[in-house]
# Entry
Amino acid sequence: MEADADTARAEQELEARLHYADWWRAQQLQQLCSQQHRLAGLELERIATRHANQELRDSERIWLEQGWRQNLRDCAPARKDAAQARHALNRLVRPELTAAHTAAFEELPNRIPDVEQWANVIQAHPDVRKQRLIWLSRQQYDDRWYDDIDARVSVSQQLDRRSDISGTGTGLVAAFSFEVPLGSLSTRRETAATQKSAARYRWLDAQESIMRELNQALETYRDEYQNLELARERVELAEVRLQEQRQRQSIEAEEGFVRLRNLTLELARSEQALILAQHGAWQALAPLKVFDRLQPDHSEQRILASPPTLHTGDQGPNWSKAVYVWDSKELLDQRSRDRVLDNLKDSGFDAIYLGVSAAQLEDNHLVTALTQTITAAEQHGIKTDLLLGEPLWLTDDHRANLGRLITSLADVPFRRLHLDLEVEQLAWPVPDTLLRGWADTIDLAVEASPWPVSLVAHHRWFTDPNTAKTVCVPCQLPEFGIHDVSVMIYSTNTDRVGQLASTAIELWPDLTFTVVQSVEAELPDTNSWHGQSRSRLASLEGQWQASWRGIGVAGVAWQAWRYYPGNDQRGME
# Structure
């Protein structure tokens, strides 16, 4: 029956959603634990040094060491769990997922409708539909006695073979059987009415059963979401307490050292707990998502509107996480290169925009160092773009310098040239002559570049169609062969960021947009995520990927690596 097929599909979808959430949890723990392994090494080294100098009690040393070892033991299964969850998921979805794929976090609703608002979903449930169809079929029953007759026909053939007689004997038998309930011969009307009534009650019982099941799922999700909010608050509180303790370290001396170690451990534990809480809420949402998809296929009737859970490459552009590396000294130095690349990879970056300074351009070994860096980055799964940015190149007097610079680096195997030309830095409001200079500079770069060219600019040029009334630079980008644009939307109001990104995509459908966010210390809190932990940013990125990828955003880029949490190890004491 169709209802049975729908039930099987719903069960398969629920299983896939649960495995996908498991895969995401294991990946997130694996990434977090990679960071915490290094942090644990530093912490245990500090603890051992203090204890060796008799500046730390035995009980304090044992307590802290046990705490970090337990933390690392909790991390141990992450890699194995990720492989197992991916293997289980590959039995259910296509195309197959590999270790190179990354699970995307699904946005979780903070409010969910009560069971009364799910009436259409309950009626569309396969079990309810099945019982309703049976009840409707019973309405066609008449009170004629022969309606209750059960008639069957059977045909059989017998084969006989004897050892003393050649050939085979056969026999064909046909049988007809009729069964008539005795009750139908005497109380036919009561039997028909009883069957109709029983079918109706089975239909009502099915509705009641599904309603109880749905109500339980709603309560479970609300409980898990509340646990998630508490876990987020604990992480935020731990970050605040740790920051406060660092600021007091100079006056608290020995006592402050132990407090700082305990708070560092507390933050590590709370970050792990946050991932588990996110996973718990996501799994609790899964049956509700499956319930929601059972109703008639009209998107406006969906109760839980959100992007699909399974992101396997066919649900919008591939998602990328990039970072601006203006100071490339450590990456170009072979002594520190692998350490930086490991840190970039652990932070989840798959692309870097790599800058070079004027002093580096004078180095005869620059091309070799860049080539070696790109090769090493590719081995870490990271793509490298050349980052060039100088407002003076927008002027007629200096534009040719950009062309010569590009030519001097033409042998380096960059993926792309990423131009950071902020025209408003030269004048505001921007005159039309400067806008024409902007377009001319982009045109020159495209002509000189052996690599594809992408552009980064303030969102105003792509979200307000009236910004450039006479000279429209975005209009010319496809003519120049540029289709990838990064828009700087520096705001911690993520709803506002999503709205601006959606506007840019609607206005310029021929362009692919990446959203640039900031962690720079110089910007106000409303414009920068500076001071947030790496796990907090990872959580935000998962939410953005789930929300923004559905509208066509290709990824997020961070400005800049210098300020990204976990990069600068100073202040860890």
User: Anything to note?
Assistant: Strands lie at 150-160, 169-179, 320-325, 351-355, 383-388, 417-420, 453-458, 484-488, 512-518, 555-559. The chain has 17 helices and ten strands. The radius of gyration is 33 Å. The chain has a mean pLDDT of 80.
